[in-house]
Structure formats: structure tokens, C-alpha cells
Amino acid sequence: MRTMELSGGVDDVPVMFVTANVGTLFEMADVMMNIWMKEFLKSVTDRKPKFIALHCQEIGGKKATRESMAQADAFVRDLFSHPEFREYDRARAFIDENFHDLETFTALGSFYLAHRSLRQVQLWDFQRNEFAPILGSDIAVFSPTTRTFSTSEKVRFPMDLHPLAKGNRKGFLRTRWNIDGRTLDLINVHMFYDEDNLVAMETSPSQYTSARKLGLQHILNSLVASANGRGSSDVALFIFGDFNFRLDVHEVVKKLTENGIRQETMVNGINGLDHNGVADPPKARVCFLDNVDLNKLILTIEKKLFDHHENHDYVFQLDNGKWLRTFDSELSAFPDIYEVEIGFAPSYPYVEDIEKGQYFMKTRCPAWCDRVIMNENSWRTINAHVPLEYGLIGSSVCMGDHKPVFLLCNLSQHQSSPLSPSNGRSVVQETRTSSRSKTTKCGDCSVA
Fold first, then answer.
1. How far apart are CA 393 and CA 158, in angstroms?
2. 369-425: per-residue pLDDT in tens?
3. How many Cβ atoms sit within 10 Å of the Cβ of residue 443?
4. Between these two residues, 143 and 444, which has the higher pLDDT value?
5. Is 83 exposed, middle or buried (0-12, 13-18, 19+ CB in 10 A)?
6. Is 384 in contact with 21 (CB distance < 8 Å)?
7. What is the phi/psi pair of residue 183, to 5°?
């Protein structure tokens, strides 16, 4: 991945939008925090954006506690006070630490830093319906005593969007910014995951895909219906977070096992007794055997196992997973949503081991869960004459089960004409054949 400092028009604002699921980071903070922070800081300082937005999911870990939330407080203090950010004189953080409230907790954290060269940095007050300048640094923490802030909107997804979801704490966190005359809505999101590989593989689209479609539509409807000042239809909207978008597993399995023989079995649990002294129940397993050598396994799938055996990492990392992008189609249902062409490896799931951070875990089918998407106003605001980057942070080291994903681009003062193919930006959601693919909206794509 190249590193660069963007240089565009005199009035352009170079921005860097980053999304990072930090669940593993907070569970392994003693061995991972320094590695993670070093990679994040290097990625930012190499590129020198004027405005940084970091959207984190699973703040405090996959199971938040009082102790893990204390780490979240230390994380943001370290981030804002780091010497690498001494030229960023204005900063804001919004952290949902209210894990006691099972009805509203989202475990989201949004962090923003503005460079001193920016003339105007304002945050929208959703109660007063007006912008207000920000000065210095401030951390807003959602807690049992402070459930709302006028400069942000936090929403938990309704349970009926995904009846299969367990322990749902998925939702989104919205802020609105005025950056030197550009109005931006920045949405941090965490959506439903595929809990059971066996369920995900049986239909196309899967039940989980359908639930995520409802989740994204719920966000878009909420923004359009917002009565707090201007809605998001006439501003530049960037949504970046852990969408949990998955490949069409049904079709991926068909492709991987074209010459395989399906075998369904029940296997005994491997963990012996649980904490209540109850034996691990048998688990369903689907295996695909080579049709010539029946002793050779092609693919093994269980609820939390997706194993392509000796070919696993080679197949899913080949050419950054280019062959898989045909099966990455969840955004195709949204014709008014745009995304830069993906040229990086799947962002999930990586081994949670500092010695093996570039390898995939064999728990789920690898996918591009972590994304930066936008509306047409945003798409037209990006300077079409300046190179951009859309990629991973820490691709060769352990960053947790998710690799952070970033978008680096220049925002112009005024909307530009649509991006041309020569700009190397594409929102082809189903084919993405090259960096010079025809520029189109997600819903206009067709399979090659």
C-alpha cells in the first residue's frame, strides 16, 4: 500500500476516515495496544490529513466491564495527547460506556481531530439546530447519569430488525460537522453478524444478509426523517464502521466445492463440560469430500467453523481476494450509496495472535466487513483530480480479528462533476474488475 500526502486545490481539505472494530484490542490490551497504536499513528502521520475521524466498535471489548471501560478512557486520553497529534488543536470524542443499560448500549466510540490550519471547525447541536465552534479537546461519555448529548445522536437498532440476533448491542452514532464550509454527516455503525455458518450457507441471500439490509435502510430512513435541522439528503454523508457485510456464503461454498461430495454429520463437543458441569452438546457439521479421493477434505463447516484446510489462507488471500468480490454484493440493494473500489484483502477474520496477525481465523468465511460508504453528495465532494487511498491499516501485523479500514481523500469546496474512470475510483459492488472500472452506483452493477 502506497503512502502519500494529498495535495489538491488550495481550498481542499485532506481527510482520513478510519473504522476499527477494537473488541480484540481491549481484551488483549497488554500485548496489543502498543502495536495497534503504532500502526494507526504511522498510517496517519505518513498521510498528513487535516481532519481525522476514527470510528470504533466494541469499545471496552466483546464483553464490556468496568475494568475494560477504564481502558477505553485511557485509550482516548493517550490518543488525544500523543505527540504525533500536537498539530491537531481541536478534538472531540463520543464514547458509549453505559454497558449497564441493556436497552441502549452500543459500545461505539467516535473520535475526531482537526488540524490547526483549518479555519472553521464546528459541531452541530441537534437540540438548538445550529452549528457551534469547538475549542480544545473534550470527551463525551454516555453513562448511567448522562444518556444523551446535544451534539450527537445515538441509536440502537430495534430488536425486531433481526430476530435471530442474540445480545444485540448494534446501532449507530451520528455527528454533523462544518469543516471550512463543508457540511458532513459522519455515522459510526455496527451491524448484525453471521452467528451460524450453517444458516448463512443454506440460502442466497441469507437471513443475516436480509437483516443487515433492514439495518442500513433503518439508518437511511432515520436520517431522512430527522426533524433536527437539515436532514442528511442535502449534506455529504459518510457512513463508516463494521457493517458485518459478508460474502454470499451459499455461492462461495458452491464455488469452492464444485467437485465435492457433501456429507452431514453430528460431532461430539470438544470442550468436555461447561461451567455448569453440563456436557458439550453434539454439533452439526457439513463436510465436502474430494470426489476422487474420499479421504481428502475440501471444506468443513460448523456453526463457528469455516475451514478450507491446507488451501485456506492461499485461496482467500490470493490477489487480495479479488476472485471473492463477485460474491460481495450486499450493497447492491442500495442504488444511491457509493463506495470506492476495493483493492485490499478482506478485513475479517484474522488470527488473534501477535505472531500470526496476517493469517485468517478458520471461524468465518473471510469478508470485507469494515467499510466506508457515502451518498452522492459526498461522492461529488471528493476532488476527482487527486489520488486517494482505500485500504487496510496493519495488514502485516496483528490488529485483532478485524483490520482497520481507512479512506483518504480530498474534499473540495464545491461539488465536482462525477468521477471519471481515469480517476481510479469505482463503486462497482459486484464486479470490481480493475481500478479503471466504469464508475457507477452500487445498485447499477452486474456480475461479470
1. 32
2. 999 999 999 999 999 889 899 999 999 999 999 999 999 999 997 665 555 432 333
3. 14
4. 143
5. exposed
6. no
7. -95, 120
| Residues with Cβ within 8 Å of residue 386, at least 6 apart in sequence | 6, 7, 8, 12, 409, 410
Cβ neighbors of 402 (< 8 A, separation 6 or more) are: 20, 21, 23, 24, 242, 347, 348, 349, 350, 369, 370
Per-residue pLDDT band at 305 (split at 50, 70, 90): very high
**CA 148: distance to chain centroid?**
24
Mean pLDDT of 55-78: 89
How much of the chain, in percent, has pLDDT values that exceed 70?
84
CA separation for the pair 169, 157 (Å, rounded): 8
For 193-288, where are the alpha helices, taking DSSP H only? 197-202, 207-225, 249-256
Residue 441 neighbours by CB under 8 Å, 6+ apart = 335, 336, 337, 338, 376, 427
pLDDT, average across residues 270-285: 68
- Sequence letter at residue 206: S
Residue located via cell numbers 451459499 = 250
pLDDT value at residue 275: 52
Task: Characterize the bridge pairing of strands 260-267 and 121-125.
Answer: unpaired
Q: What is the DSSP string of 114-125?
A: EETT-S-EEEEE
| CA–CA distance, 40 with 20 (Å, rounded to integer) | 10
Q: What is the pLDDT of residue 11?
A: 84
Beta strands in 104-210 (DSSP E): 108-115, 121-125, 130-133, 137-142, 153-156, 171-179, 182-190
Question: Is there a contact between 192 and 167 (Cβ–Cβ < 8 Å)?
Answer: no
> Of the candidates 344, 296, 303, which has an alpha carbon nearest to the alpha carbon of residue 197?
303
Q: Which of 247-256, 278-287, 416-425 has the lowest mean pLDDT?
A: 416-425
Q: Are 394 and 39 in contact (CB under 8 A)?
A: yes
* Closest-CA residue to 424 (of 433, 414, 413, 415): 433
User: What is the Cα–Cα distance from 334 to 327, expressed in whole angstroms?
Assistant: 16
Q: What pLDDT, on the 0 to 100 scale, is given for residue 118?
A: 97
